[in-house]
Amino acid sequence: MEGNELRNGIPYYDTNITSNAKHTMYNTASNITIRGAAGPNRQSISSGNLNYTLEERDWGYPVLATRNTSNSTMSNNAAFILDTNNGNYNPRSYSNNTLIFPKIPKPFDIAGNTRFDSQDETAYRKAVILLDANPNTSVGGFKITVAIQHGNEFTTIIENFTFPATLSYAENGLPSSVSSSLKPQVAATPPVIRYTVNTPSQLVIGFTASTGTNLTYTNVIRNLRITPLYGANTAHDDIKSHRRGPVIIRPLDNDIGYFNDGSNTPIGDKEFLDPASFRFWKNEYECIGNNKYEYSVPGQGRWVYNPKTTELMFFPEKGYQGKASIMYDIKGKYHPYNGEKFRSSLATISVTLTNDQP
What we know:
Layout: E1 31-35, E2 43-47, E3 50-54, E4 63-68, E5 79-82, E6 89-92, E7 125-133, E8 140-150, E9 153-164, E10 166-170, E11 177-178, E12 184-185, E13 192-196, E14 237-242, E15 247-249, E16 257-259, E17 267-269, E18 279-281, E19 294-297, E20 301-306, E21 311-316, E22 322-329, E23 347-353
Parallel strand pairs: 14-23
Antiparallel strand pairs: 1-4, 2-3, 4-5, 5-6, 7-8, 8-9, 10-13, 11-12, 15-21, 16-17, 18-22, 19-20, 20-21, 22-23
C-alpha cells in the first residue's frame, strides 16, 4: 500500500490484513525480490464487491521470494517465500532455509548513494544473476541465484531458488472497494489464483527505475554482460603507475573456466581455461583473430601474449606516458565449454605508465 495505490505483494499485517502499519519484519527499503511470470490469458477476478476482467499480462507477477539486505537488525530475518500451494507468505530466516537464503555476513544497502568508477569504492554495486536449467521441468523451468558485489565484498542473497511452473498466489493488489476519498481497500480475503506458465524459449531483459520523491538519486546501469551459464568469465586487469620498461601481466589469474565432473553443478577455476583460445580485440567490434598473439598500437607499444606461460607482456614505445589498453576474450578447455557459444565476454587490460621517479 502506498497512499491510494495497491501493488500485488506481501501484505503488511500480522493478524489484520486491512492494517497499513508496517512491522519491521516487512522492511522493503533494501530488498532483492524474485517475482513470478505475467498471467498468460484473460482472467475474471472478484475482489470484495468489485469484479475485474484482466487481459493477458495485466495480472500475475506475484512475489515468489524476497530478502532484505540492509544493515538493519532484520537483514537476516526479513525474508519471505511464497507458499505456491495456498498463496500465503511464510517468513523465513537464514537459519531454517540456508539453501535459499544464506546468511549475509556483512549487511549492506542496495543503493551505494553515489556514483562509482571502481570496485575499490564502497559505493560500488554489481548484480550477478544466474539462471540454471532445472532437470525436473514439471516442477520448474530453471533455478535462480542472485548475488550482489558491494565494494570488494561479494554476497549471495538468494541461492538456487526454483522458479515454479505452476503456482497459487493471493491477488491482493486489486481493491475490494473504493471509498469516496478514493482510498482503495485491501480485500479481507483476497482471491487465490492458480496458473501455469511454460518456460519461455527466449531471454528478454528490461530495466525500469524510480526514485520516488527522492530527487537526489540518479539511476545508472552500466556494463551489462549476458553470457551462457558456465561460459568463461573474464575480469578486467588494471596496472597503475608503472614507471618504465616492459610490463608483465597474468590476465587469466582472475578469470574462470568450467568443467563438469559429473555432479549437478560444474566447477569453476582458471585451470579449466584454454590459454590457446586467447584473442586480442582492437575494440569491442574488431577482433584481431585466432592464434594471433601479438599486436602493436602505433604511438603506444606492443602487446605479446604467450599461451604456454599465460603471460602477457606490454613493451611501451620509448618515452610513452599515459594509459594503454587492449581487450581480449577466452573460452574453456573442456567440452562443452570449449564451444564458441561459451566464449567469454570482453575484458580490458590497462597499463598506466608514468615518469615520476625522483
